[in-house]
Amino acid sequence: MVPSSSVCTKNNAESLLSFNCPVLFCFFFGLPKQIKRSGTDVLVHMAQLTVDIGGSPGINCRGFCEYCYFKKVQGVQPLGCRYCLPFKKGCDYCIRGIREEYAGFKDLKTIADETLANLQTRQGDIERITISGGGDPSCYPRFQELIELLGSMEVPLHIGYTSGKGWDDPAIADILIENGLTEISFTVFAADPALRKRYMHDPTPEVSLEILKRLCRKTDVYAAVVVLPGINDGEVLERTCGWLDRSGAKGLILMRYANTMDQGLVLGNGPLIKDQPVQTVDSFRDLVSSLHGRFRMKISGTPLWDPEIGSPFAILQEPTLLAKLPRVQRKATVVSGSIAAPFIEKVLSSCGSAIPVVPVKKEIACLITADDLRELDPAVLEHVVILPGRAFVHDPEAEALLCRDGVRRSVIRGPEMLTADAETSMGMTRNDVLAMEMDGFMDLIQSINRYGT
After folding, report:
1. CA 314 to CA 29: how far, in whole Å?
2. How many domains does the chain have?
3. Is the separation of the CB atoms in 407 and 1 below 8 Å?
4. 10 Å Cβ neighbour count for 151?
5. What is the mean pLDDT of the chain?
6. Cα–Cα dist 96/94, whole Å
7. Are 200 and 187 spatial neighbours (Cβ–Cβ below 8 Å)?
8. Residue 430's pLDDT is what?
9. Residue 208: CB partners within 8 Å, gap ≥ 6?
10. Residues 226-257: pLDDT tens digits?
11. For residue 97, what pLDDT band results from cuts at 50, 70 and 90?
């Protein structure tokens, strides 16, 4: 198997958590920024620093929300992934990392030491500091000290995710603002305190909502709502949208609830809520469309869609850009999730491909496992198969499953990302998304032309 990247609509962390628990994994990256000095363009490396506070879902967050992706997770066998050694199925990423199994919050000294060490390896100016981890930052026991420590660096602060359940005093909003908080992702669920208490197990929901309201006045707040049909949708959702809009939220991401393996519960812990209805993908997209434009804040949804940008796969609305992609000159079967597959096939068809994209039952490409490949009919596959690079499958096992009819096939992994889901596109322009899609599909087509028959 030739490892490369991933045919998916988002990175693995987002894929795992976007639906029922929007926690972000930690990462570091830098962005080049062009400035002018004395009439000369200078490329300055503006770096973002992510501070990992540790913690585990359900333990360091005042208990699982009713809909949390990690609820009911027991010991599971390694799924396999692109990081595994060829001779061993299972690595730290697909055994421990996927379940966010960490030994509680890190102490403040450890965080300070790690931050200092990371700063010493960075080049250029720090543009932003993001606080993230497996637990909820609002539940960090020395949260105020942490914020004051990071605030002393005089760099804009960003909290990658919080439910607000750990904050019991509205004054924390002022402390955050005073120490340089500029952006926060905040799961609200509903503007109704009783619903927050019932489904998020927030002990002080009125306080959490007051903090959110204060932060909306001074920072960029991106709220999130996991939509449970019959509970916080309909009129409840409309009231929540109205409350957020009046408060001054920058945007709202609606997240379709997942309750089964096909919808993304790859850890064997579904259903999360017994007999809880789940919207179809089309119904969810219609819900996002119906709310878009009715409020000042931006409203988008995951897995579908961003009405403002037209993503995922906004490139399908740009025939001029499609014409600039390379032509498909060889044959290979692209395997993807059931949501992305039709879009990918349309793009490849416009580039001359006559080979259907093969969908698995799993909706999200990055969450494809060996069980999904086991259900595919090898007879429909070409001699070269391109899998999502971030699929949770061990390379040798993928080859064995896709060659079980006795036909020898080459199995490779595709590009890192093909498009942007709503969480990614929330902070992007349409041109940013289109550039991402152009790069992703160029890589995919080049893989087909390089490895195909």
Report:
1. 25
2. 2
3. no
4. 17
5. 87
6. 6
7. yes
8. 94
9. 163, 164, 165, 167, 196, 202
10. 999 999 999 999 999 999 999 999 999 999 99
11. confident
Q: What are 121-165's pLDDT values in tens digits?
A: 877 788 999 999 889 999 999 999 999 999 999 999 999 899 999
Q: Which residue, of 263, 281, 302, is where some domain finishes?
A: 302
CA distance 304 to 310: 10
Whether 424 and 10 have beta carbons less than 8 Å apart is answered as yes
Q: What is the DSSP string of 53-103?
A: -B--TTTTTSS--TT-TTTT---------TTS-TT-S--HHHHTGGGT--S
CA separation (Å) from 153 to 122, 128, 147, 207, 331?
A: 14, 10, 10, 28, 54
Looking at the domain assignment, is residue 8 inside a domain?
no
- What is the per-residue pLDDT across 7-59, written as a single tens digit (0 to 9) for each? 343 333 333 333 344 332 222 222 333 333 333 333 334 578 989 999 988 88
Q: Do 4 and 412 meet the contact criterion of CB atoms below 8 Å apart?
A: yes
Query: Is 338 in contact with 359 (CB distance < 8 Å)?
Result: yes
Burial of 117 from C-beta contacts in 10 A (0-12 / 13-18 / 19+)? exposed
* Edge-to-edge strands, sheet with 333-336: 358-359, 333-336, 384-387, 410-413
pTM given for the model = 0.85
CATH number at residue 213: 3.20.20.70
Q: Are 96 and 226 part of one and the same domain?
A: yes
Whether residue 201 sits in one domain with residue 83: yes
Contact partners, residue 133, CB within 8 Å, separation at least 6: 26, 52, 53, 54, 55, 102, 105, 106
Containing 161, the helix (H) or strand (E) segment is strand 157-162
Query: Beta partners for 411?
Result: 385
Residues 78 and 128 in one domain: yes
**What's the token pair of residue 167?**
């904050």
Rounded Cα distance between 69 and 57, Å, is 9
In-domain check, residue 255? yes
Phi then psi for residue 430, to 5 deg, are -60, -40
Q: Which residues of 261-296 are buried (b: 16+ CB within 10 A; e: fewer)?
A: bbbbbbbebbebbeeeebbebeebbebbeebbeebe
Is residue 1 assigned to a domain? no
